[in-house]
Write a structure and sequence with these properties.
The chain is α+β, with helices and mostly antiparallel strands and 180 residues long. It has 3 helices and 10 strands. Strands 1-2-3-8-6 form a 5-stranded antiparallel β-sheet. A 3-stranded antiparallel β-sheet has the order 5-9-10, with no helix packed on it. A two-stranded antiparallel ribbon has the order 4-7. The longest helix is centred in the first third of the chain and has 23 residues. The termini are far apart. The relative contact order is 0.19.
């Protein structure tokens, strides 16, 4: 019987190194995670409200009453205009956005100019460089007439005024002048 045991050959068992299994498993998991992210985050933004139309904001509605290029407008700020004394960078121009907010809810509406920015292809997110008022609260039935000044690119882009929430008001492209 001992001789029979010696005649048997022991075939060594081949083991697959862990890294040969682990690397493909991690790649498959990463691809599945990326696909899941794409499927859940590919929701398109709502289109902006057309120029002159109203959009809802917390406590009421907002509407743009005008977009005026400062270089052809002749407007001067009534006070604290130091921010507008600096030269306009090449490839940009300044616009004055006339924003009207009306409080419809019992709690009224709060406005902070620093919440607003311009959104659009290739613009980054230009922030307000001058505003009047800079902040204000209105009771139900009252309106806030705000003037916001931005520096934006000299390109006829479909720009949008946004407050970082759901408010998206179209600025159109008419504020671009032929001289630019």
């Amino acid at each position: 019987m001992a001789q029979q045991l010696d005649d048997r050959r022991v075939i060594p068992r081949r083991t697959v190194p862990r890294h040969r299994i682990l690397v493909p498993a991690v790649l498959v998991a990463a691809m599945a995670g990326g696909a899941a992210w794409l499927l859940t985050n590919s929701v398109e933004e709502e289109p902006p409200v057309m120029l002159g139309a109203s959009d809802t904001v917390d406590g009421g509605i907002a509407r743009i009453n005008g977009i005026l290029p400062l270089e052809s407008d002749g407007w001067e700020p009534p006070a604290n205009g130091a921010a507008l004394e600096a030269a306009v960078p090449d490839g940009a121009h300044r616009v004055r956005v006339l924003l009207e907010l009306t409080a419809l809810e019992p709690d009224g509406i709060s406005f902070r100019a620093s919440d607003y920015f311009i959104d659009g292809l290739g613009t980054g997110e230009p922030r307000v460089i001058w505003a009047s008022p800079s902040s204000h609260a209105a009771q139900q039935g009252e309106s806030i007439d705000a003037t916001l000044v931005f520096e934006i690119p000299n390109q006829a882009l479909a720009l949008v005024l946004s407050d970082g929430g759901e408010t998206r008001l179209s600025l159109g492209t008419e504020h671009h002048t032929a001289a630019q």
